Amino acid sequence: MKQIFFAVSFIAALAVITQTACYYDNEVEQYGITPCDTVAQTYNGHIQTIIQANCVSCHGPGGEQEQVPFDTYGSLQPFAASLVDRIHGNNGLGIMPPPSSGTLSDCNKQKIEAWVKAGVPEN
Prior knowledge:
mainly alpha, 2 domains, elongated, 123 residues
């Protein structure tokens, strides 16, 4: 009798554990993470906002780096290829924006990379 009770208890416990042990859900619903949309990035549609918020205070009129202006598409375009290296700090010149000014989110870095890979489209 004890063996039957033990067997039934074991099977019931196993059933409960296997039904609750695995929880399949997607990251967005589970953690609130929104995927980074890097499709069809353009200067006017996406990149300008990132640059204005993070770069123009230094790379614009009156800024410390105004000789390397980023305040318009035409002024940023010649530097676009090196921009990816600078946002990752890969060229020995330091990371941009400097840590004291804050850093770009990983998503914004991915958007800039996608924009450069696409040929720096304006619209």
